[in-house]
Amino acid sequence: MGTSRSTGDGSTTYRTGRTGSMWTRGRVLAVLAVLLAALLVFHRYIPNAVGNLGSLAETVLPWFGVFIVVLAVCAVVRRSATAGVALLLPAIAWLSLFGGLLVPGKGGGSSDLTVVTHNVNASNPNPAATARDLLAAHAGLVALEEVPSEKLAAYQGVLDGAYPYRAARGTVALFSKYPIESVTPVNIDIGWTRALRAQVRGPHGHRLAVYVAHLASVRVDRSGFTADERDRTIAALGDALAAEKLSRVILMGDLNGTANDRSLAPVTAHLRSAQGAAGFGFGFSWPRGFPVARIDHILVRGVTPVHAWTLPATTSDHLPVAAALDV
Fold first, then answer.
1. pTM (2 decimals)?
2. Residue 296: CB atoms within 10 Å
């Protein structure tokens, strides 16, 4: 806010409230920028002891970029060169973490297998419509999670015509254009079946170990970000992946965590993200109306991601995700 001063000739002059040079203004903004950079660089050291704060921060880590924009706007308003220079630190840190996701044309090459995974929502009001939407991807493999037994027939009624091979265990299912040689449930220590392993004879006769998994959910409540059950299912799935003998592995499913979340390390230590390797952008998949996190994943080992993307919304509360692979 400015102040006024009368002059001897009866006129009035105004002086702005901004004081100091552009190098002395905005020191608080500069400190905030440095702290933000530290959070981005050292996010692995944010402790999980209280409310799984570290995992929660890593789940929303890409959104820390919003704070950089807010601080930049404040620096411009304050005309602070100090804050502007300090903001280079979090900007560089953010780009080092996520800049690779914004590089167009990653992946590339030829693919011989498209795969799709979709949490179809147990309360889906129109399973047949969702199944028809998935057909448009022309995928060789379609994985479904949250399929109640009473709704499985609705998905089969649409997908069986295009997918002659099918495996369903508990609340997960796999539809395949390629022969499924064997199917076993995967115990993820949750009390009922929410994961399966199928051995698929894929393109060129290659044997693929295809996992479909729906890990336990997380909760945000008064005690913080509670993920003990989810983390237990991660550990169990990680053990199964570590013991996998086939060299070509595809994991599809709702893992209820982002690739940045340290808690997913037992899984991501064995596989890489198709979106990270060959997708453009963050590929957020949940919630459908305004996706803020990618908790639905296609992770691979021994095959090459060529392209990865999200599909249009269905009647589920998640977006389907897809990847083109060279097996």
1. 0.90
2. 27
